[in-house]
Amino acid sequence: MLLKTVFFLVSAACSTTLGSGLEPQIPSVASFTPSHGAFELSSVVQIVVDSKHASHGTPSLLDFANTFRDDLKDVVSYLGIVPVSLSPNIPGITLGIPTIYLTLDTSSKYNLYNGEPTDEGYNLVVTPSSVTIKSSAPLGVWWGTRTLLQQAALQLSKGVPSVSFPAGDIHDSPGWEVRGFMLDAGRHWYETTFLSDLCIYASFFKLNEIHLHASDNLWNPAFLYGDGNEGWKNLYAAFRFQPPAGSSLEGLVPRKNESWTKNKFLQMQGTCAKHGVTIIPEIDTPGHSLVFNQWKPELMEAGAPDHLNLSHPDTIPTIKSVWDEFLPWFSAPEVSIGADEYDAALADDYISFVNTMAAHITSTARKSIRIWGTREPSNTLSISPNVTIQHWDFPGDTISVQLLASGYRVINSEQAFLYLDGKTSDGGQFPQTLDEDLLWGARWAPNVFSATDPSNNTRADAPGLRGALFALWNDWGNNATTALEAYYQLARSAAVFGEKAWAGSGVRSTELSRAQFDAAYLPLNAAAPGQNLNRVVRPAHGDVVFAHATPPRPSLDTGVPSVGPPYTLAFRVQPDAHDPGAGVLFAGIDSKLHVANLTFEATGQLYALGYVLPTDRFTSVEIHATREYTYAVIDDEAHPRYWYTLMDIWGEYMALGNMSFAAPSQHIGGEGFKGTIRDVMLTLGA
């Protein structure tokens, strides 16, 4: 029942091709040289992998080919069986079967804007009989398959019966090495299955990194710094990597149900790698370290429970032991140690710590490190130039042009452009999604750090400028958003960022206009293969996903794991008089609806409507949901009742925020429910 469908039509006014039949896509390609004819993607097609290079790389060219085959069938629903085979040469049409050929040419050269070589460039050559995707490395071929899939999706979104690729040669490579986003998983729990799906989605837009901020705490000054206040001991803090049973680090993970086991993390990391996405793990110290001090209070800096005391003899050995435990988990060539917002009065201690950890991680695991940019005043010490600086703030951060001039490598995460936050109670310190008016208006690209002071910006080809990451923070913790609400924040932002971080702004003549981006985004979001974060379903009849007048007791499995908003879930219910608050009315992979107080459960949190169902009669309930809110109409009341979350800003005042829930559609009844549910109907549209 769960299917992704390409259901958006691109209007004729917005569907301008690149003069040769190539659809504007996200991100835009560097160049296309047309030739004559077209490659018809009939229902029968084969993928052939160059046998000389099939096992090259990790993931290998053959690994990418198999994933591409699955994605191609996902996007182009009319395809039959698509075999993947090996051959040393392109076979062209064999027995009338058109061919997509994947190969490597290690002599091919592709460069970033700064002239550094990259393995991510590719050539896509289309003839009437074949499509050849070629690169110097398997990852470049992978990005070429994304280009081919997007072209197919954009054509199908116009209602054409079959796909036809215009003949010619696409030459493409990214402008920058680092392209992706940071997700604050330290203050908000995310399952590895959700993170895997995020990787798959981000890959469709050629993003190549997800930076996982995997340890942190809520920031409440009254709890952390109040005189005689020991509220810090119970303030939410988390460390997400679960050490094995019996490890000396077990006490570091107070919430094992909100931590990743090694097997689950490795599986997720592997899924991401098979889609061209590298997981950059971050364990944040010596600031943002409340979780460490709740575990070992003796390591705490006096008066600052979220800071480590770097002069304590056990602090650095303890942090080294944490990294030693988890470094073998990480396949990325570099990791982040955080290292932001520490006490400036302890600059030398801070710098010594960063350099010590950099040397330790490099010698132990042959990995380099990143830190958040922090201007620490010191006349005697400096951060090692081997450490990459992730710029995020003016004026507290060292000016990036100065860092680059001093030989540092820099990643742009400037908060004025690139910071998002989950729902907050302060009126929106940072936006919910990237400010596209700002990005397009300022012609933002990774070399742009300021919209108002050009002297703080660099050239697109600046040596040492590695790229950019935007950031989704969760300063108000688990209860502010569900995991799917985080996806809603990231979905369009990832696509526009894909264009800006791959192509730039003002560097290539083929870059997208805002109108072209707007035209391409909706059909591409709907078609993105390999995951279903939109929780799309295709009902068999009209908009009705299912209807059950008298569901069998105690429960019914509908076969529909979840349905994304907008939807309407209508039903009549009478709880058992002897146990009126027991059990679950509806359950799915993303949410549950409990009988007690009509409480939604999502991402491990409970959100009560506060309505007690009567036991002496049936109550009619209609639940309506959009991506912005969820409300119930009970017994045709004139005023709907909304599900809210209660948020506070640092203990100073409280505010309500609307919640959006996916429909809990997998099971009707069960989990201890003893009453009666009737006339259940789930329809699309709120």
TrEMBL record:
Location of the active site: E341 (proton donor)
Alphabetical keyword list: Glycosidase, Hydrolase, Signal
Family matches, as InterPro entries: Beta_hexosaminidase_sua/sub, GH, GH20_Enzymes, Glyco_hydro_20_cat, Hex-like_dom2, HEX_bac_N
Catalytic activity: Hydrolysis of terminal non-reducing N-acetyl-D-hexosamine residues in N-acetyl-beta-D-hexosaminides
EC number: 3.2.1.52
GO terms for MF: beta-N-acetylhexosaminidase activity
Any one Pfam family match given in the protein's UniProt record, by short name: Glyco_hydro_20
Signal peptide range in chain numbering: 1-21
Gene3D superfamilies cross-referenced by the UniProt entry: Chitobiase/beta-hexosaminidase domain 2-like (3.30.379.10), Glycosidases (3.20.20.80)
Domain Glycoside hydrolase family 20 catalytic per the UniProt entry, residue ranges: 178-503
Record GO biological process: carbohydrate metabolic process
Residue span(s) of domain Beta-hexosaminidase bacterial type N-terminal: 26-172
Record-stated family: Belongs to the glycosyl hydrolase 20 family.
The protein's name in its UniProt record: beta-N-acetylhexosaminidase
Record organism: Trametes pubescens
